[in-house]
Amino acid sequence: MNDPLRLTVLGAGYLGSTHAACMASLGFDVLGVDTDAEKVDQLNAGHLPIYEPGLTALLRSGLDSRRLAFTTSYPHAAAFGDVHFICAGTPPQPGSHHADLSQVNRCVAGLAPLLDRPCLVVGKSTVPVGTARRLAAELAEAGDGVELAWNPEFLREGSAVADALAPDRIVAGVMSPWAEGILRQVYARPIADGTPFFVTELETAELAKVAANAFLATKISFINAMAEVCEAVGGNVRALAQILGADSRIGSSYLRPGIGFGGGCLPKDIRAFIARAAELETDQALGFLREVDAINLRRRTRIADLACELADGNLADVPVCVLGAAFKPGSDDVRDSPALDVAQILHGMGARVTVYDPAALANARRACPELGYAATLAEAARHAYLVLLLTEWAEFAQLRPDDLDTLVAQRNIIDGRGVLDPAPWRAAGWNYRALGMALTPPPSTPLAARRSAKGGGQGASR
Ligand code: UDX
Question: In what order do the strands lie in the sheet with 29-33?
């Protein structure tokens, strides 16, 4: 083994490009590998195919220092690396919720026959539990001294660099003390900085990732379920979230109510977890995750229904301004974006939707060409009958009524992320609405009367 260790990173997507650049910044020589020659050329020229704050600078300094390079060549990677990180994507299989492991499998199948000296192959991709044990058996046949470990990544888009360099924890699923020692060398810096380092068997390491995502999704859906109850009784879910979050046993993070979770991880990972549990005949244990998913999707139709209500039950030809397309602020990712999904539902109900997002316009346009787009917030809001705030970018969360007063045709705003202070908007004559906040008449009205008052209209069905 070289000292310091030489690392390869197989798969130069979101996870791989972040991991490669961060490991180079820690002083390792790193070779990133991807089968997409165009992406490799782009990365070698210092261009990231994704939007991630701080990552371009790390990529460029890695390239400049010659500690970082990218290649399409597996033979080069096999000859170069002491530790090979598998960072391939695991999207859902077409027409199913099961994870598609073909990219991970191809990485291992491509590398294994080329390994002719002791090395550690480390899985970082999010996989169904049991995958690592199967891959370990394949690698054991590749040669003496070739071993597998599993080391899941917990990075969040928008803060991926900080999450990679200073993680909350490092999980090392290993089969030997030797593999543990290698991973301790790789992560010497964060370990020295106090990051907890958990050593487990392979299965627990795989589960650590999906269980964390399932828990986060459950927390978000829990508060959104409370929002549904608040809507029925005239409560205020924002205040409720603050009260719950003040309990140190519960904590306030991932307890922000709104239109729910999206992105390339949480939704697909909980669905793949449910699918894997069924294969393992433990589906009863994860039945609640189906409800977590259902609550999450219900928020999207609920907000569309609210928009329809504000348009007197008919959105046909109503100009609607949608603020936000990314699944969360700080990202240009529109995969399973609640904001874009709501925009599509409104479009399907006949509204004339114009979307503005500070970073995700190009991706949104590609994903949903049928929607209208504007290059600025003001352009999107001009002549709108209704404004919906659906991704909580700072420039939206800081909006004041007089930023929009003279642009819009009607002063209707729905705050889908619960980030605006209702008081100044209402004082300025706006009809301000938010999920989980006094959508119904006051609690003194009998529930049955309120139910019948809510009926009628167009309704967003799926
Ligand atoms: C997530 C996990 O956090 C990360 O550990 C894992 O590695 C990948 O998946 P990410 O997809 O980047 O990361 O998004 P995250 O910041 O967790 O947010 C997920 C979604 O939940 C977003 O749509 C966000 O808007 C939503 N969310 C988050 C809420 O609706 N309420 C909250 O309180 C928190």
Answer: 68-71, 29-33, 6-10, 83-86, 119-123, 146-150, 170-173, 197-200
230 is catalytic: no
Q: Which of 14, 220, 293, 393 to mutate to test the pocket of ligand 1 (most atoms within 8 A of CB)?
A: 220
- Name beta bridge partners: 415: 389, 434
Measured in Å, residue 296 CA sits from the centre of ligand 1 at 13
For 82-139, what is each residue's pLDDT tens digit? Answer: 999 999 999 999 999 999 999 999 999 999 999 999 999 999 999 999 999 999 999 9
Residue 305 falls inside a structural domain: yes
- Specify whether 19 is located in the same domain as 109: yes
Q: For residue 26, what are the domain limits?
A: 6-200
What are the pLDDT digits (tens) for 250-290?
A: 999 999 999 999 999 999 999 999 999 999 999 899 999 99
Nearest Cα residue to 412 out of 424, 435, 430: 430
**Does residue 265's CB lie within 6 angstroms of at least one atom of ligand 1?**
yes
Per-residue pLDDT tens for 41-93? 999 999 998 889 999 999 999 999 999 999 999 999 999 999 999 999 999 99
Q: Cis check for the bond before 446: say yes or no (omega within 30 of 0).
A: no
Is the domain of 195 the same as that of 243? no
Domain assignment present for 1: no
Same domain, 275 and 424: yes
Residues 144 and 36 placed together within one structural domain of the fold? yes
- Same domain? 181 vs 230: no
Looking at the CA of residue 159, tell me the nearest atom of ligand 1: 12
Asked if residue 346 and residue 268 are part of one domain, the reply reads yes
Q: Which of 176, 200, 224 is the last residue of a domain?
A: 200
Q: Does any domain span residue 462?
A: no
The average confidence (pLDDT) of the chain is 94
Does the residue 205 lie in any domain? no
Q: Which of 87, 265, 308, 368 is catalytic?
A: 265
DSSP string, 58-105: HHHHHHHTTSEEEES-HHHHHHH-SEEEE----PBPTTSSSB--HHHH
Q: Assess whether the C-beta atom of 222 lies below 6 angstroms from ligand 1.
A: no
Q: Which of 135, 168, 200 represents a domain boundary (last residue)?
A: 200
Does the global pTM surpass 0.85?
yes
